[in-house]
Amino acid sequence: MTVFFENKQRRYDVDEIQKLIESVVDTSLKVENIDAKCQVSIMLVDDIEIREINRKYRGIDRATDVLSFPMLEKKDYKNIDNMDLDTGELVLGDIVISLNRADEQSKEYGHSFDREVAYLTSHGMLHLLGYDHEDEDERKVMRDKEEKILGFLNLNR
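Structure (tokenized):
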């Protein structure tokens, strides 16, 4: 598994955050029983940057907590052609996380900053793996999987 990081904010030190995110990515793949070597790109940003990305790619002119850009549209990871030819890894896509928003939400929900970053990462990973929350049933499936991932990391509420 390879996780590429791009830090486009200056408020938070990202060394420990990157280790946490790598753990969440790895745990997400294990929970989903994905044995393929995978590649994910993570961009850590502020609210200004995520608002611009949200406007550019989704046509929504506001900041948000996490954006996901999946490279795949299905949950079946066998016989997939979306491989990095240099590494042989399956390229899952990109996740953009606003650390400002993670900080605000951790205070709002009364849990740690680390838990919120882990939650946003798990949410983004599930989108990369083909999950969505367009209706209540899908939302419940995603929430249950997010809590399972966080539970494995001892980051329950």
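The chain has one domain: 2-152. Helices lie at 15-31, 47-58, 99-109, 113-128, 136-152.
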